[in-house]
Every structure is written in C-alpha cells, then in structure tokens.
Amino acid sequence: MFQILVIDDDTTIQIFLKRLLEKQGYKVVTASDGEEGITKAIACHPALIICDWIMPILNGLEVCNYIKKNPNLSTSFFILLTSLDSVADRVQGLDAGADDFITKPIEQNELKARVRAGLRLHQLSRDLQTQKQLLETELAQAAEYVRSLLPLPTTEPLLINSCFIPSQQLGGDCFDYYWLDSDYLAIYLLDTAGHGLKATLPSISVLNLLRSRAIKSLNYYQPSDVLKALNETFQMSYQNDKYFTIWYGVYNRVTRQLIYASAGHPPAILVSGSGQFAKKTEVQLLRTPGMPVGMFPEAKYVDACCKIEKFSNLYIFSDGAYEITKSDGTLWSLDGLIQILTSLQNTIDCPLEQVLNYLIALNSKEAFDDDLSILQIKFD
What is the distance of C-alpha 39 from the center of its chain? Predict the structure, then answer.
C-alpha cells in the first residue's frame, strides 16, 4: 500500500484530501505546517507528498527543496498545492524540485489522476534506484576481486609499493611484478579503454596470461616481443572493441639495466639522485613509440634501455593519476604529477602514501573519474 503525506495548514483541506485518498486505498498521514511535514516525511518515507505552497513555519517551496535534497526522500513524488497559477510561479516551483502542481479549488478527478501518475513515476524511480544500487554493489565486488589479484608490496630484494583506487564505474587498470628468475624482475601496468566489467575482463585476462606464462614460445625478457604477442592475442575485433595501453619493463638487478617498451601508455618516471647522495635530481620519462594493444594487427613495438642509478625511484602509473579535475574545474596534468614525484625524491623513504594523499586532496569529486594505479620501485 502506497503512503501519502498531506501537508496543509488548513484543517478542512487536510480532512478532505485524507478521506478522498483513503477511499482510493492509500494510507494517508497529515501535517499542519512545513516543519511538521518534514519530520513526518523523514519518519514514514512517503511515496507521494501533497504540500500547500503558502504556509507558516516553512512554505511549500522550502519543504520541497529539503525533500529533494534528502537522498532517502528523493524518489518521493512532490505535488505543490497552490492558488498561484502564473507561469513565473510554476517556474519557481519547478526550480525548487516540485514534480507537479494542483491548483485550488481542487478538482477531484484531476487530483486522482495526478496522484496515480505520480505514484507510477515514484515506483519507476524506486526500481531504477534499486538497479543502480545492485550495479554499484557488483562493481564494488568486481573491484575487490581485481584488488585480490594484484601483487602485495615487497621489501626484498627491492622495495616495491603500489596503490589501486578504482573509480565508481570501475576502469580497466591492472598491474603486476614478479621475478622471471633470481636476477630479472618483470614489471607492467595496463589500462583498458572504457569503464565497467567490459574494461576489467580484458585486464584480468592479460594478467593471468602473463603471470602463468601461457605463451610458451614467448621471450618474456624482451618487452617488445611481449607487446607484439599481446597485440596478436587481444585484437579489438575479438575483445568487444576494447584496446588497452601498457608499459612493460624488465630489470636486471646485477647489471642495473632496465629494458622497457610501451604501447600508447603514459611514460614511466625515473627519478634519480637525492640531496644527500647527488648534486641534483634527474628526471627521465621512459616511453617508446607504439600504438595501444589491439588497435592494429600490424602495430610495431620497440625496446629502449636505461641504467638505473643508486637511490632512484621508478614510478609507473595509469592516466588516472594525473587526469584529475581540480576544484577550479581545470584538469591536472602529467607535469604536475612529475613535480610531486620529484619533490619527494629528497625525502628519506619517498612514501607513496604522500603522493596518494596529495591526489585525493586535489580531486574535486567524491570519487576519481578513472581508476588510479601507481607502482613505485625503489632502488638502493
């Protein structure tokens, strides 16, 4: 049974509406002013509210504005009862959040029809809200599943920290690091285009494929070969039109050489030196030319190599780490992220938590628009 709240300071109108609506099979609660009406709305969560416009102690517009801003009452259909019938008055009412109007004197058949229509819309809003909550729950569970697949931080023989903050819609970020043998460390981070499970599933497939080394003939020590094999395996035409960017590197801890290749991915940032051990801090952007994986079957990938100096930090990340909307509405940049990473080089531990705290404070929204993933490898 639908519950309807009638708010009117005129007792006669209250009794009239209560009797009329109860005959239609609705449960009716009444209130004599706006303040009492809000209190009863919070208590009973009515499906529909009929509220007089002109009242003492909060008028109808004030009540409507409060109801529509309350997440627990936002699906309540709100009808303003008024003797005001100018276009300007109706515009004012709609701006306050009113869903419909009934003009005094009340015509019974019109009232019944508007109430029926309002309750249908209320039920539709409730159904949509339920579906939205189910979807959000499923995405949260999927995000937890992705998190469970990601590697844990390590301290030996290298200190490796990581973070993964999924967006509300869940993007396609995924990363991994593991030793190919006792001397060679493989590191990669990928970002599938789009959001939702369609973006997440290819990322998980890549992680499982590389972690299990399922392509037996592949040289996992050669980044360009790995990207070429992934491009042949994950063409868009077979992956729901999904492509992904990736940065893949292999580090030799004996020679301190890092060989790497990228496919449309943001550059990894290598920050070398510190105030205690070097004259200056050096920043290198590690990226090679190459189209995102899955776009073109004939795409080519190349390797590059660099020497890792002592006391360096390597940061690998998705574009969600710097494509952040600030409070002034502008978009942050890669240069801004590089400045933050460089400024932390002179700290003792260069903790990733400091970077995350800065990014969270910088973000103007409740959640990030895209997945945010960062890997930090600290070289002694």
Answer: 34
CA quadruple 241, 196, 71, 121: dihedral sign: positive
CATH architecture for the domain at 3-133: 3-Layer(aba) Sandwich (3.40)
pLDDT score of 184: 97
pLDDT, tens digit, 9 for 90 and up, residues 201-244? 899 999 999 999 999 899 999 999 999 999 999 998 776 688 99
pLDDT of 21: 96
DSSP 308-325: --TTEEEEEE-GGGT--B
pLDDT tens-place string over residues 137-157: 888 888 899 999 999 989 889
- DSSP state for residue 240 in the 8-state scheme: T
> Which residue reads 């990669």 in tokens?
188
In terms of DSSP H, where are the helices of the chain? Answer: 11-23, 34-44, 60-69, 87-95, 108-149, 197-212, 223-233, 334-343, 352-362
Q: Please tell me the distance from the alpha carbon of residue 216 to that of residue 205, in angstroms, as a whole number.
A: 16
pLDDT digits (tens, 9 = 90+) for 49-105: 999 998 988 999 999 999 999 989 989 999 998 887 667 777 888 888 899 988 888
In a 13 Å sphere around the CA of 161, the CA atoms on its Cβ side amount to: 15
Residues 6+ apart with CB under 8 A from 230: 206, 209, 246, 263, 293
Q: pTM for the complete prediction?
A: 0.75
Residues 6+ apart with CB under 8 A from 134: none
How many Cβ atoms are within 10 Å of 65's Cβ, its own excluded? 16
What separation in angstroms does the CA of 284 have from each of 272, 295, 355? 8, 28, 18
Q: Give the position of tokens 């030793």.
A: 179
d(CA 35, CA 42): 11
User: CATH classification of 150-379 is 3.40.50.1110, yes or no?
Assistant: no
Q: What are the domain boundaries of the chain? A: 3-133, 150-379
Evaluate whether 243 touches 237 at the Cβ level (below 8 Å). Answer: no
